[in-house]
Write a structure and sequence with these properties.
The protein has helices spanning about 5-45, 50-95, 110-120, 120-145, 150-160, 165-190, 210-215, 250, 260-265, 270-275, 285-290, 295-300, 305-310, 330-335, 350-355, 370-380, 390-395, 440-465, 465-475, 515-525, 530-550, 555-570, 580-590, 600-610, 630-640, 650-655, 670-685, 690-705, 705-720; strands at about 195-200, 220, 240-245, 400-405, 410-415, 425-430, 490, 505, 660, 670. By secondary structure, it is mostly helical. The chain is globular, with a radius of gyration of 34 Å. The relative contact order is 0.07.
């Protein structure tokens, strides 16, 4: 047996194992959809006597939850399959080539990246089916309400509406398996092109083999051939590719450190002959089909007369279909059998089926299912390009109520208890506030701030549905032994018993995972804050005193600004921020605070003094509001320090809330301190002005390094969890 014959045999066995894997996924999907059907029926019976909007919202939430689970489980399985397939291809080369060649495996982070990149189509198709089912369910509900059907009848009709997606989802899963396997094999071939000359297309030898793949079976392509084709060529494709090892002479002449020339020379004559560089001699699809019974042939060719014509052996298998896999009519086959040259006639039924099997072009809404009022504010707050935040928004339920009047807020209203459970329904209400003329940036940052609160709550609920994802989120910030309990353990002392360390509790927002990091910054910023505040004020007074002492004319403003410009140069600089950036930031902040006086070198010096001391001075009223910093940053630091430095909300907002642990000074760290700082973090990250955004990011890292790093890390983890 040649090397290539051996590899083909191994690859076909592997493809058979993939078929078993498909059956497992099919069974899993059947269970999920069966459970989904029961929950939809139960939800319809529960909410059937309420308004149409309430019923549709409940069914939509349930549907989204199910399909998110299907997608996440699918990606987990595909990643596992990818790693297994990569190892298989590597071992195949190792065992076939022996010690002649040191093969290279495509594993680790590269495999995950490949899955993330190739999962886009899978994600889009799942989303498309989900949206299609949501529309179908709404139509069923609307029709039932119009016809005054009983609630139980509507519930039955809703349950019946999900029968079709089950089949579609199985098809998508099987196709994704083939695509993943093909991507991994392709990547492995490229890594080992030192000894590989190309690849052969091999159709799976079973009754499900399509005509498209049947035509391609046995075709050979070079690795660098842009015209080369790979599976899947259609939905439910079960074909594979097999690498073709170079001849002994070609390998001997290849300059590669992974090829052992010494071991090559020591190979026996028979072993050298096995490196013949020829395509495997295994049977092709036509030969295979000719040895099967007529029942099997009928399943492939679809017509008894076609089978009879095929059995004559006078026509090649490729003559029974077009290049696109459409069956050639019996009449045309008769003509070919008799040597008549006419144009091929396509079976219209098969053509229709082929068109239906084409992969749809799907345009997923950037922000998922939203109403017009909400969408307008989301586009303003988060832009028109997909990023971490848009993906998170796609994976949370639709807002119950959207307002644009009065003061901005986000409220997670408590609803009724779900029958038979201890869980409670929640109803989202968000108010983006009254629009103000000439304050577009304030409008943008307010919208991102309030929506960040909603993301903070709702994404945790979604992540907690998956033990693996929840564990990934909390890793390093909490002990993982509580991950299955959907609880976290912080180093903070218990709020009710100071003697108990390592408080364990169930978080209500994912930002609460960063509780210990916020506690560190709370302690650091409040430590000796009176001394640091006095130091900043004394530095400013001393600078003014020295100027008055040395100035020839103290009223000369030019000399004053030159004096302070020299002092500015002596002040340390923060990484990534120039003095010009700080001047720009001060000007923009003054606009926000309705201060229109010009920014001078003296202003910049005083600003840098405060920054270097990690201090803010109460120049705008309130406990510690500093007009040199914009509202977001005042609120960010104010939330972390409970207004010891900075200012945003009144003290009751931070003290009269749920306490998750005790701080070093025995005061409580409240959930509002955490969620407010996170909302301002998001507001900063989505600030439309690049310079202001960069300055503020560096300021956040300077004043609260632990909190900022924790939020950065949590967002990176969520980005990986929800990557498409």
């Amino acid at each position: 047996m040649s090397i290539n014959d051996d590899i083909l045999s191994r690859e076909l066995k592997n493809r058979a194992l993939l078929s078993l894997y498909e059956k497992k996924l099919d069974n899993d999907l059947t269970k999920v959809m069966s459970s989904h059907k029961k929950r939809l029926v139960a939800s319809t019976l529960k909410n059937g006597n309420k308004s149409v909007n309430v019923l549709n919202r409940a069914l939509t939430i349930e549907t989204r939850k199910t399909y998110r689970k299907i997608y996440r489980n699918g990606i987990i399985e595909l990643k596992a399959l990818a790693n297994t397939s990569s190892k298989f291809h590597n071992n195949t080369l190792k065992e076939s080539l022996g010690k002649v060649y040191r093969s290279k495996v495509y594993t680790g982070l590269k495999v995950n990246d490949l899955i993330i990149n190739s999962a886009g189509t899978y994600s889009q198709q799942i989303a498309s089916i989900s949206l299609s089912q949501q529309r179908r369910i709404k139509d069923v509900v609307k029709k039932g309400m119009t016809e005054n059907l009983a609630v139980n009848k509507i519930a039955k009709n809703v349950g019946d509406s999900i029968d079709l997606p089950s089949a579609q989802l199985k098809t998508l899963s099987r196709t994704a398996i083939t695509e993943t396997s093909s991507d991994i094999s392709n990547a492995t071939y490229k890594l080992n092109e030192d000894v590989l000359d190309g690849y052969q297309y091999v159709a799976t030898l079973d009754s499900r083999t399509s005509l498209i793949c049947g035509r391609l079976d046995g075709k050979v392509f070079r690795l660098d051939d842009k015209r080369g084709v790979r599976p899947p060529q259609h939905f439910n494709c079960r074909s594979t590719t097999v690498p073709i090892v170079k001849s002994y002479e070609d390998i001997s002449n290849t300059d590669s450190s992974r090829i052992s020339k010494r071991r090559l020379k020591r190979l026996s004559g028979g072993k050298r002959a096995s490196f013949n560089g020829q395509v495997a001699s295994e049977t092709n699809f036509e030969q295979f089909l000719s040895r099967q019974d007529d029942t099997f042939k009928l399943a492939i060719l679809g017509n008894k007369r076609r089978v009879e014509i095929f059995n004559t052996g006078k026509l090649k298998f490729t003559q029974f279909s077009t290049k696109t896999g459409q069956l050639v009519s019996v009449g045309r086959l008769e003509e070919l059998l008799n040597g008549v040259k006419t144009k091929t006639v396509v079976n219209p039924i098969v053509k229709i089926k082929t068109e239906l099997n084409k992969k749809p072009k799907i345009d997923i809404p950037l922000f998922g299912d939203t109403n017009k009022k909400e969408l307008k504010m989301l586009e303003l707050a988060f832009g028109d390009k997909e990023d971490t935040y848009t993906r998170l928004i796609q994976n949370i339920p639709a807002v119950g109520m959207v307002r644009n009047a009065g003061n901005a807020y986000y409220i997670r209203r408590r609803g009724k208890r779900i029958p038979g459970t201890l869980e409670t329904e929640y109803f989202d209400e968000i108010n983006f506030g009254t629009p103000r003329k000439g304050s577009i940036i304030n409008r943008q940052t307010t919208a991102s701030h309030e929506y960040a609160h909603r993301i903070d709550y709702r994404i945790l609920e979604d992540v907690a549905d998956n033990d693996s994802n929840f564990k990934k989120l909390i890793e390093g910030y909490s002990t993982t032994k509580y991950s299955k309990q959907k609880a976290i353990q912080l180093k903070l002392r218990h709020p009710d018993n100071p003697n108990i360390k390592n408080n364990v509790f169930a978080p209500k927002t994912f930002s609460e995972v960063a509780g210990d990091e916020i506690a560190k910054d709370y302690t650091a910023l409040r430590l000796n804050s009176p001394t640091r505040r006095a130091g900043s004020m004394n530095a400013v007074r001393n600078a003014e005193r020295d100027f008055l002492k040395t100035a020839v004319n103290p009223t000369d403003n030019v000399a004053r600004q030159k004096y302070y410009a020299d002092l500015v140069k002596k002040q340390p600089k923060l990484p990534g921020i120039s003095d010009e950036d700080l001047l720009y930031y001060l000007k923009e902040t003054r606009k926000e605070n309705y201060i229109y006086s010009p920014v001078t070198s003296e202003d910049l010096y005083k600003f840098k003094v405060k920054i270097n001391d990690r201090m803010m001075l109460p120049t705008g009223g309130g406990n510690g509001y500093d007009l040199d910093f914009n509202t977001k940053f005042n609120d960010y630091v104010g939330a972390i320090t409970r207004n010891e430095i900075g200012d945003g909300h009144d003290m009751s907002y931070y003290t009269d809330r749920r306490i998750i642990g005790l701080l070093d000074d025995s005061t409580g760290l409240s959930d509002s301190m955490i969620k407010e700082s996170y909302a301002e973090y998001v507001s900063t990250m989505k600030h439309p002005d690049k310079i202001v955004r960069n300055v503020e990011i560096q300021l956040m890292k300077h004043y609260a390094p632990n909190t900022t790093k924790a939020y950065d890390t949590l967002m990176e983890r969520l980005d990986k969890i929800y990557a498409r």
